[in-house]
Amino acid sequence: MYISALLRQTVFVTELTVTDARARLAEVVDEARVRHEPVFLTRRGRRVAAVIDADDLDRLVEAAEDLADIEAARNARAEIEEHGTLPWDQVKADLGLT
């Protein structure tokens, strides 16, 4: 398989031109899915996109969301340390629950 030889030329990072990827899209998708490594698509020598296994992408998105939640919690704790907490009645009023 031509694409397999092309993809295996790079040990750590797989890059392929958009033109080559277009001609062999099914193989590119299979390689990304089976190897669980992204295939970067290039145009004029610059990365412009990547093909990645859908389950791998789901895990990456979930991890990014978890990191964002951790950062938000740290920021909330820092704000509480700096400004203190709000009385419960004020929170209810701010939310229109009174």
UniProtKB/TrEMBL annotation:
Gene3D superfamilies: YefM-like domain. It comes from the Bacteria. InterPro entries: Antitoxin_Phd/YefM, phD/YefM_antitoxin, YefM-like_sf. Belongs to the phD/YefM antitoxin family. Antitoxin component of a type II toxin-antitoxin (TA) system. This is Antitoxin.
